[in-house]
Design goal:
There is one protein chain. This protein is mostly helical. Helices cover 44% and strands 6% of the residues. The protein has seven helices and two strands; from the N terminus they run H-H-H-H-E-E-H-H-H. A two-stranded antiparallel ribbon has the order 1-2. Strand 1 and strand 2 form a beta hairpin. The protein starts with 5 loop residues before the first helix and ends in a 6-residue tail after the last helix. The mean pLDDT is 81.
Length: 104
Amino acid sequence: WMIKDDVYKRLYLYKDGGDCCEFWFGHGAKDDCLSKIFTSAPVVTTDFTNTTAVLLAMWYPVIEDRKCMNDGKTPDFMLNDGFAKWYLFNTEQECCGTFDCSGS
């Protein structure tokens, strides 16, 4: 949704992490900020015949338990196109970075 709004693109979407850190935290905090950024390679599903299997292998939040799992028991609603981008992650760190994992 941010890509559709020029103001959000200008303020929140950066091609380079250093530019983002410098804008939001200043030049003096740039190195510390960069050390806390984690990125993920997008999951490419074009080579897979079973997209559901790929999604089931991703990390998802167990909100009531405050943890993230990738046990293949992803709730059905999270597998839907409208929800997958918000609830499924390539790494545990990404999942816990978005959802509180203080229960794990």
